[in-house]
Predict the structure.
Amino acid sequence: MAEIAVIGAGYVGLTTGACLSQLGHDVTVADIDLPRIEALQRGKIPFVEPELSEIVNTGIKSKKLKFVVGAKNACESAEFHFVCLPTPANNDGSTNLSFFKSGIEEISEVLQPNSILITKSTVPVGTAASLKAQLQRNDISVVSNPEFLAEGNAVNDFLYPSRIVIGAETAEEAQRVAGLYSKINAPVITTGWESAELIKHTANAFLAMKLTFINEIATLCERTDADIQDVAMGIGYDPRIGASYLNPGPGWGGSCFPKDSSSLAFIAREAGFNFTLLEHTIDLNRKHVERTAMKVLEMLPQEIHNQKIAAWGLTFKAGTDDLRSSPAIDVLHHLVAEENRICAYDPTVTQQIAQIPEVHVETDPYICAENADVLVILTEWEEFNEVDMARISEIMKSPNLVDTRNLFNREQMEKLGFTYLGMGV
Ligand code: UDX
């Protein structure tokens, strides 16, 4: 079993470190955030992620998983160093590598000879090559090993991945990193640095494009009396298309799709290639969010002003407390601009949120919907199915329901007295 350092205790770093310890390795996770590390040492994880808490606590008990402040302290004796530092977007869509680079700078001198620096963070193509140059150490190898962890399913995605991608300069280096995953049953794809880096961006950009496509077809369904759920099922059985990522929604978002698609479009522009398909995908998603907001406004009785909009769901999808680039918040921004009163409920958000302070956050779905003129469902939380919708219909001022995730059944909702608007149904 190997001695591993993980730099960064965010979603990717914490999941990576905890799961590697679960596979039997000795893992030290480092972060600069002292309160975060102290909480982790006590087994408290800083965000909502199913199964992660159990794995972290098992790792702490078995002493296979440790948390320290400062990357140097984790890297000094390790053979493998996973870099899991944030790589946010700049305003022009390019990737901000400053956290990533300064993290590497901090550890470059303490790395053991013959150890391997592994990039897990999503970085632009060419980063491994420039990292190798930045390091100025011929005794250190650089390997790209991108993550494909979806929030809310990250532990499962790590331990049961569809594939493991390893981009390395030599077969021997790739083999050493592949060895860390020997207990995992998944195809290992070994490539050069650049291909591995591009695989990550391409996967997310492709999925974003697939979602934009299905959101566009959902709009077409609404204008042609077709049902998107039937259409998605009808195409999803074709293995060349595949059944996943065919659920329409308010627009795609999250900490990865928006920044990764913009980053890839930027990379293409820099490479002298105008990647119009991807540029349009990003633009169409923005328009789809606007269209979603329009649906809500159209449901409001025209003659009354200062109406109450109730919104269920604030995170970018169900199963997480992550509000980063949430399409739910983008939709609400459009609605706030129309001077409506907005009240929101989300199972993982209990306080007012800085991203949209105009929205009043309630911790009870009934209080949120009381006297509302319209209720809009923005994330697909299963909890919403447990709410007594008959009661909701009674307590709303006008029982108008805009279900952007097609969580409810139109006939059932109409029987309860709702005027129902789904997404492409
Ligand atoms: C994504 C990738 O899935 C993961 O492999 C990568 O490493 C990180 O980025 P994540 O950001 O957690 O993961 O979200 P994901 O579950 O992929 O959803 C992204 C967006 O698409 C969300 O806004 C979600 O609501 C939306 N979506 C997803 C749909 O609207 N419909 C679908 O059918 C699936």
Remarks:
- The CA atoms of residues 315 and 323 lie 5 Å apart.
- The chain has two domains: 3-191, 193-425.
- The longest strand covers residues 26-31.
- The chain has a mean pLDDT of 96.
